[in-house]
Design goal:
Bound molecules: cobalt (II) ion
Oligomer: single chain
Structural class: mainly alpha
Distance between the termini: 77 Å
Helix content: 55-70%
Strand content: under 5%
Radius of gyration: 23 Å
Number of helices: 20
Length: 501
């Protein structure tokens, strides 16, 4: 074999990384199909296809040759982009090498099984059915954490998969402040006994009309249907197949208009991030999104900070009335109140901008204790219910309303905190945009979404994984993730809402 120079080694890595990214786009397109239009019984063999392609990619990337290329490339004169790519390549290579294949397969197989059992357990409202599988998942994750290594505590190793380089302690410090301020604001709302006029959102809304309206909004905001699609699924998602092919889905409830609209805006935010990534760097880390906490900041930004604002509906409420004449006699302010109703509930996905984070903090604290062996799965349900009662003031009446509501623990832990990190980062970016571009809601009122999109594209999307997530937040906003921005935003918003009658 010829000896390669560092630059040649780097080029080889680019070639391989691109090739594997193209191959994995087949899983993306097949996964999209699986969740949208595939006939129900197709799932068995489809899973086989994904496993085969996934295994091929894994085998290619863990060859010793890849490790040699990385070592060689590191010896060269590297620019900032090359350094970043090599950092992520090396991280992925080392982590995949460390995890024994048997453990990987055990994880995948247990997850598949656990997912089906979780669904059944939830239907039957019986945590006992799911418990043995959750125990096995926790055991696997604890083992993975030991193998991967960690800074302070085993749970750090799992967080690192989704929010690289962030530690549980850093997150706990941020969440602690957010928690006490959220409880304070929640108390304020309870004392006011506010009527959020939620009845205005009830009624009968034709599915096709909803779809038309969602497409209308997407077009007005700037989602390019030459590069994307909107389809219907039970659980909304966004997926990039390839650059210039980023698809989203939403769900339509005939008796509830807000689910489809805000689901669409949420996934549109994810899609904007994927569409705005650098095409030149496609197939390498610098052309990829950097973390879930940053990704979720983009979906929450468009869904909540823009989509649930009064300014946004000043622009679109007349169109809304044309699509849905039942709003003809509903005041804009009342519609605004209703879509922002703050009402503590058992279910995370039905919760509002304020209490959502309490749901996440609860899961974060429990996951952390379980992975760090402070509590065992046998005690998890009681721990959930106790903690829930402490935060919300009432206790789950069933497993369905409590520990069985989310799918995540049928395969992973460490994912949940990224949702609230997304909210926090969105608020921080929102604050920065207001400082740099002037009042963002003035841009919204002029339907100038392009200026907002371009700012996000230049500062966040185009950066891809050039920086680690907290470095990116620091570079864009001048500091790391700081809860004060979200707290201020929520406080202002709530004051606003409470002044509407
Ligand atoms: Co999301």
């Amino acid at each position: 074999m010829t000896i390669l120079t560092p630059q040649e080694s780097y080029k080889e890595l680019v070639k391989l990384s691109k090739k594997l990214t193209y191959i994995s786009s087949l899983i993306a397109i097949s996964g999209w199909d699986e969740r949208t239009y595939m006939p129900k019984d197709g799932f068995k063999h489809r899973a086989e296809v994904h496993a085969i392609i996934g295994e091929y990619i894994y085998e290619e990337w863990t060859k010793d040759y890849v490790g040699e290329l990385i070592e060689k490339a590191k010896q060269g004169e590297l620019d900032e982009i090359q350094k970043a790519n090599l950092y992520w390549w090396e991280k992925k290579y080392k982590e995949q090498k460390k995890i024994p294949k048997e453990l990987l397969i055990r994880h995948i197989k247990t997850s598949t099984l656990a997912y089906h059992v979780w669904k059944e357990a939830r239907e039957k409202d019986n945590f006992e059915l799911f418990k043995p599988y959750l125990k096995e998942i926790v055991e696997i994750l604890r083992e993975e954490a030991q193998i991967l290594g960690y800074k302070n505590e085993p749970y750090d190793a799992l967080i690192d998969k989704y929010e690289p380089e962030m530690t549980a302690q850093e997150i706990a410090n941020i969440f602690q402040q957010l928690k006490s301020e959220t409880l304070r604001l929640l108390n304020r709302i309870r004392n006011e006994n506010k009527d959020f006029k939620s009845y205005v959102l009830k009624g009968n809304f034709d599915k096709e009309k909803q779809k038309e309206f969602c497409k209308f909004l997407l077009e007005k905001i700037g989602y390019d249907f030459n590069k994307g699609r909107l389809d219907e699924t039970a659980h909304p998602f966004a997926t990039r197949i390839l650059p210039n092919d980023v698809r989203i889905t939403t769900r339509f409830y005939e008796d509830n208009i807000s689910s489809s609209i805000f689901g669409t805006l949420h996934e549109m935010g994810h899609a904007f991030y994927e569409m705005g990534l650098s095409e030149d760097h496609f197939g390498t880390p610098v052309g990829e999104s950097v973390s879930l906490g940053i990704h979720e900041s983009q979906s929450r930004f468009w869904e909540n900070f823009i989509g649930r604002s009064l300014a946004f509906w000043e622009v679109f409420y007349d169109s809304m009335k044309k699509f849905f004449p039942q709003f003809e006699n509903v005041k804009l302010e009342h519609f605004y109140l209703a879509i922002n109703e703050i009402r503590p509930s058992y279910i995370r996905v039905e919760s509002d901008e304020l209490t959502y984070n309490l749901h996440i903090i609860l899961r974060f604290e429990l996951e952390r204790d379980v992975i760090n062996k402070k509590i065992e799965v046998d005690d998890l349900k009681d721990a959930w219910n106790d903690k829930f009662e402490k935060l919300f003031g009432f206790r789950p009446r069933s497993d369905k309303e409590g520990i069985l509501q989310d799918v995540h623990w049928s395969s992973e832990m460490g994912y949940f905190p990224t949702y609230t990190l997304g909210n926090l980062n969105a608020a921080q970016f929102f604050h920065k945009i207001n400082n740099e571009l002037g009042n963002i809601y003035e841009l919204v009122r002029k339907s100038d979404f392009k200026t907002i999109y371009n700012w996000l594209k230049d500062n966040i999307y185009q950066k891809g994984s050039l920086y680690k997530p907290q470095e990116l937040v620091q570079i864009v906003t001048g500091e790391k993730t700081n809860p004060k921005y979200l707290i201020n935003y929520l406080e202002n918003k709530i004051e606003n809402l409470l002044n509407i009658y």
